[in-house]
Amino acid sequence: MMVYDVIVVGSGGAGMMASITAARSGKKVLLLEKLPKLGTKLKATGGGRCNLTNTLANDLFMERFGRNGKFMMRALEELDSRALVEFFTELGVETHAPDGYHIFPVTHNAMTILNGLEEELGRLNVDVKCNEKVESLELSGENIAGVVTQNNNFIAKNVVIATGGLGYPQLGSEGDGYELSASVGHKVTDLHPAMMPLICKESWVENCRADTISKVKMKVNLKKAKNLNAYGDLIFTKNGIRGPVVLDFAREITPLISKYGEVPMLMNLTKGMNEDQILKHFKSRDEFTTLELVKTLLPEALSIELCKLADADISLNFSKLDGVVRDKLIKLLAWTPLTITGHEGFKMAMITRGGISLKEINSQTMQSKLIVGLYFCGEVMDLDGPCGGYNLQWSFASGYLAGQLL
Predict the structure, then answer these.
(1) Which of 70, 272, 378, 382 could staple 355 via S-S, CB 3.0–4.6 A?
(2) From CA 311, how far away is CA 325, in angstroms rounded?
(3) Is the pLDDT of residue 65 over 90?
(4) What number is the average pLDDT over the span 74-91?
(5) pLDDT at 359
C-alpha cells in the first residue's frame, strides 16, 4: 500500500489545481485519473479555445450562478479571475481578453493550459497515475482513510473528489464522484444535463437554419417559472434551437422538462421591440409588402415562417391585411411562441445541473461536513453557471481552496 498526504480523484481543471495547491504547501500528493491521459474534458472546453474566466467583479460573477452563488465567495476571495490570470502567467501561459470580457490563453488553444498545468505537476513531483479508476472510499470511523482502485489501495488522510459531472461521457464524465460521495452518506441532488441545444415541438424552425438571430430575449411561459429569462444570440436547428442564449438557458429548462414534459417559451426576436414599436415601424413603410416589412426586422426565411403562422398573405401590403391577421402578426413578432419538448441528454451537455448538496460542504474549506478529510471541488458539486468562463473559473477556484486543506 502507498501512503500520501492527499489523494485527488479526477484530473480536470479542479483536480489539477487542487493537486498543485496541495503540493506547493509541501504535501505528498497523488493524482488519480481513470482515463489514459490527464485533462481530457479540459481540452474540449470552449470548443478547444479554453475560455478560462471573465473580467466580471466577484459579486456580479456570483450572481450569475443564481441563489447558490454566494457559496463560492471564499473560493473567489482566494482565487478570483485576476489571481487565476497571475497563476497562469507564473506557469508561462499568457492570457488576454480580446473583447474585454472573455479571458483566453493568447494561443486560443486549450492544450496551452493543459501543458502548463502538467508541467507544474511534474515540477512539484505530484505522483500522477492514469488508468486508475477509484471504486470506493476507505473510512476510519468518520475520517477518510484512502481510496481503492481496480488495481491498488492508496492511503491518505485527505481525499479530494474532483470527478466532474455527467456531461460529455465520451470524455470520461460518468458520475463516479456522485456514487463515491453517496456511498459515504452525502446527498446528491437531481441531476440534469445543461448548456446544450434544445428540441422543440414546432416544425417550422427547420426552415430557418441559415441565420443567427441576435439579441433575442427568451422567457418561460409558465406561472411557476415566469421569472426565468435569458438574453443573447439564437440559432434555429433542424429540430430546435441552439446558440449562446440557449446554452445559458438550458440549465433552467431541462429540470422543467423533467417536471412538466414540455415547456412553453416566448421569444422576442425583434431586438426588444414591443407591439406598439413594431406597428409604428410598419406604418412608416406602408408602400412595402408584408414580407418586405417583416424582412426589415428579421431574415427572410424566418419572416416567411412567421407570416405563415399569422395566416398573412406576404404579397399584400400590411394595411390590406385583415385586422385580425395584422394583430396576430404583430403579436407573433413581439413574442414568438415555442414549445421545448426535450434534449439529447448528457452526451450533448457541457455541464451538469445538480450534484453533491452544498448544505453538506463547508464553503470556507470545501471539506465535507460529514467526513473529516473529504473535500470536493468543481462540477461535482450542486453549483453551475452560464457560458463565458464561469464554470472553469469556479473549478479552478474551488480546487485552489480545497487544495489548501484548511
Answers:
(1) 382
(2) 7
(3) yes
(4) 98
(5) 98
Give the pLDDT score at 349: 83
pLDDT of residue 124: 98
- pLDDT at site 406: 56
- Alpha carbon distance 180, 186 (integer Å): 9
Q: Which three cell numbers stand for residue 178?
A: 456522485
Report the distance separating Cα 103 and Cα 55, nearest Å: 7
- DSSP code string of 298-358: S-HHHHHHHHHHTT--TTSBGGGS-HHHHHHHHHHHHSEEEEEEE--GGGG-SEEE--B-G
**Residue 159 β-bridge partners:** 7, 374
Q: Does domain 2-191+353-404 have CATH number 3.50.50.60?
A: yes
Cβ atoms 193, 348 nearer than 8 A = yes
CB-CB neighbours of 97 under 10 Å: 17
Residue 157 has pLDDT above 70, yes or no: yes
Spatial separation of the C-alpha atoms in residues 176 and 159, rounded to whole Å: 14
43 contacts 381 by C-beta, under 8 angstroms: no
pLDDT for the residue numbered 172: 58
Polymer length in residues for the chain: 406
Q: Determine what percent of the chain is predicted with pLDDT higher than 70.
A: 98
Q: In whole angstroms, give the CA distance from residue 380 to residue 279.
A: 49
Q: Which part of the chain is CATH 3.50.50.60?
A: 2-191+353-404
Q: Compute the half-sphere exposure of residue 19: CA atoms within 13 Å on the CB side of its CA.
A: 33
